[in-house]
Amino acid sequence: MAWKDEIDITKYHIAAAPYGGPIALLKKQMRLSGAKPLIYIYSAAGRLMANANWEGVNLVQMGWSVFEDLLCVAEDGTISVYTLSGDFKRIITMGQEAKESKVIDCRFFSSSMGFGITILTGRYHFYTINNLEDKRIRKLANPPGLNAPPSSWITIPEDRGSRVLVAVESFLYSIANDNVEKLTPEMSEQVNSFTEMALSVNNKYLALYADTGLVWIGSSDLRVS
């Protein structure tokens, strides 16, 4: 990388765009030092392209949209959108509960409906926007027993919307607007919790990683392995 030893990536929030796209970095805990936070945008080769002022509160996560806009999710539920050249574009808000109880986690996703986001609030409720250009927020149904952060979760886009797969220890729940479905994929051994999930680029296949080291790979509806 062109930045060589100038950047210690362990001290930064990082968002790398797919397919060799740009890399955004924001130093962690900059507010504590009194310095004004800056977002740095580098090329995939590590050459500085632009920077932008970070005016938000504590950052939860950054990500790149399919249009190469940089999305910065703050814990108060605001999403600051920047262009590739570092220009501020707009703010999207995720509603009153996100503001009051804070955003503790989020996932970006892409589908035929557009580029979307799902957030998890401090009250352990999920909210989704399927298309950030549309901005309509949907509150999802609550999976039973979720009174702490889930061991893992992921948003699965569908033709007419999306659903969220939530792992509450060894139990898996598929949640949508007003529906909760318990799923029990066939496993070769007993597991205590699912700690990681990964979705294929075409959204058709899913990988689950369990605390025992078991990896399950199958269809994203968990019906075929």
TrEMBL record:
GO terms for biological process: endosomal transport; intracellular protein transport; vacuole fusion, non-autophagic. Pfam families: Vps16_N. InterPro entries: VPS16, Vps16_N. GO terms for molecular function: actin binding. It comes from the Eukaryota. GO terms for cellular component: endosome; HOPS complex; lysosomal membrane. Coiled coil: none annotated. Signal peptide: none annotated. This is Vacuolar sorting-associated 16 homolog. It comes from Paramuricea clavata.
